[in-house]
Amino acid sequence: MVRFLLRALGFCLVAAAFAALVVDGTRSIAGGRLLQYGIGDTAAWLGGAPFAGLLAELAGAPLPVRAVAGAALAVPGWLASGALGLALLHAGRPQAARPGFSSPAT
Predict the structure, then answer these.
(1) Out of 6, 40, 49, 60, which could bridge 73 as a Cys pair, Cβ 3.0 to 4.6 Å?
(2) What residues pair up with 38 in beta bridges, in sequence order?
(3) How far apart are CA 18 and CA 12, in angstroms?
(4) CA proximity to 78, closest of 23, 28, 2
(5) What are the tens digits of pLDDT across the range 25-79?
(6) Rounded to whole angstroms, how far apart are CA atoms 91 and 17?
């Protein structure tokens, strides 16, 4: 049951990554240059005020924390969603058959 849930969630994330890639590709073609929505842009669009509060808290953080968080929020959304989806698909895959006899010894 858990494997099914992992695979279903992984498949949905890979599908969302493909959709985000199409959106970014369409924006890039229309804009004439490479345009990508980062995780931060998507979170700001979905989260609104709570995400703005998180960014305000992050502005007062030490420099290494700000640098790591800034780099993490700049990752394209399709890449993050696709990587997480593929990891879940890999975690939910059926176990490989082990070599040896498949019938019990008599």
Answers:
(1) 40
(2) 76
(3) 10
(4) 23
(5) 999 999 999 999 888 888 888 888 888 888 888 888 898 988 998 899 899 999 9
(6) 18
